Amino acid sequence: MAVDAELLEILACPLCKQEVKLVPLTPARATAVRDKFREKFRGEEPVVEQGLQCVKCGRVYPIVSDIPVMLVEEAFEEA
Fold this sequence. Notes:
Blueprint: H1 5-10, E1 20-24, H2 27-37, E2 48-54, E3 59-64, E4 67-68, E5 76-77
Antiparallel strand pairs: 1-2, 2-3, 3-4, 3-5
C-alpha cells in the first residue's frame, strides 16, 4: 500500500508551504530512518522506501509504513 494520491495532492512542506513530490530513498538513508522509528512500532518492522521532497527547499520527509512524517525536525536533505 502506498501513500494515497489524493493525500499527495494536499500535502505541502511545513516550512516552505510548497508542494512535495514522491522520491525514493537511498538504501543507507532508508536504513537510518527505519532504525530511528523501529522502537515506535512495537514488534512490527517499519517499512521505509520513499520520502516526500519539497520542490523549493529540497528537504525530504520520510514515509514510514505508508505514513508521511511531515515534521521539519524529521526532514533531511537527500544527496
